[in-house]
């Protein structure tokens, strides 16, 4: 996981909204798209960026692909933030 990719991915408000939706549970791309006024290919593009940043995982169930949060990456990010503020941003 690259912090740069993760930060780039969450910099976009649409992707942050997708992450918020997934926080409530796994969803298909169609279910995610139903919350936005954009074409499904645009939603797929955002999901691809979130997957590349390892913030989202997918799994196939029959004909559907379900997307879920990769909580491990969020834990890594939170740990980095905690260390950053705990050390006063001075580094090690």
| Count of extended strands | 3
Run of helices and strands: HHEHHEEH
Quick one: overall form? elongated
Q: Determine the CATH superfamily.
A: Winged helix-like DNA-binding domain superfamily/Winged helix DNA-binding domain
> What helical percentage do the residues reach?
55-70%
CATH top-level class:
Mainly Alpha
Largest sheet: 3 strands, antiparallel
Determine the number of helices (DSSP H or I, runs of at least 4 residues).
5
Unreliable stretches: none
Record keyword descriptors for this entry:
three-stranded antiparallel β-sheet; SdpR-like_repress; DNA-binding; 92 residues; single chain; 5 helices; elongated; transcription regulation; alpha+beta; transcription; HTH_ArsR_DNA-bd_dom; Arc Repressor Mutant, subunit A
Explain what the structure shows:
The structure is a single chain. The chain is α+β, with helices and mostly antiparallel strands and 92 residues long. The protein has a single domain (3-86), classed as Orthogonal Bundle (Arc Repressor Mutant, subunit A), CATH 1.10.10.10. Helix content is 58%, strand content 15%. The protein is built from 5 helices and 3 strands; from the N terminus they run ααβααββα. It has helices at 3-10, 13-23, 29-33, 40-52, 71-86, and strands at residues 27-28, 56-61, 64-69. The protein has a 3-stranded antiparallel beta sheet. Strand 2 (56-61) and strand 3 form a beta hairpin. Helix 1 (3-10) runs antiparallel to helix 4. The longest helix has 16 residues, at 71-86. It starts with a helix and ends in a 6-residue tail after the last helix.
